[in-house]
Amino acid sequence: MKELFTAFGPYNLRARLSVGIILIAPWILELYLLISEMQKITSTLIVLLITYGFCNLLIIYCRMPGTRAMKKCFPDLLPAQKALLPSSNYIDPKSKDRYYTFLSQNIKEFTLSEDDTHMKNSVSTAVTWLIAQTRDPNKFPLIAEENSNFGFSYNLLGLKPLGLAICFIGIVFNAALFFLRHRQFISLNLTNIICGFIINLAFLLIWIFLINKKLVISSGKKYARALLSACDSLNTN
User: Fold this and answer.
1) Are 90 and 235 spatial neighbours (Cβ–Cβ below 8 Å)?
2) Cβ-Cβ contacts under 8 Å for 192 (sequence gap 6 or more)
């Protein structure tokens, strides 16, 4: 069972598979509450396998809305690129000067300028180069961690409309079950129906209040700081 999830790789597991699990979690929990057979070990394994397959599809799909969401949060430049611009004060001046020196020594295309517009191509090239140099998660664990967090946040934001729809449908579904049970058309456990309603409502509130542009921007800035700090460690090596 462990191999099913480790096969995704660290980034897919954190930034994409976790997103898929959060997206369909209300309905999976709903099934467990309303269908007693789902609580058996055999049924649980079947659900896990189905979830695994479905999340494979979501991994491919969430790249599209996730990328669109990221571009809405950063319409011009990504945080790491923007942090290298002369006008940015996200990084302290001394650190920025060290990064400029290191990048100038290692990237021929990197040229300094006092004007943001003239620096855009240089900073884009520099960040692309840094990403290529820091792909090994064992050598750069902090960068890998912040990159996964960043991907997780913007993929969640990209799937927010779908997540809201799933939770809203779940709330209406449980309200309908409550009405039908009150009218004695069905005999489902009232506690399970209420729990299902609360679960969908809780996830709806998470989608509304926690998953937003602020989360993506904050994660993006933390990733930018971690990525740019690699200039110091690469320079030491």
Assistant:
1) no
2) 33, 34
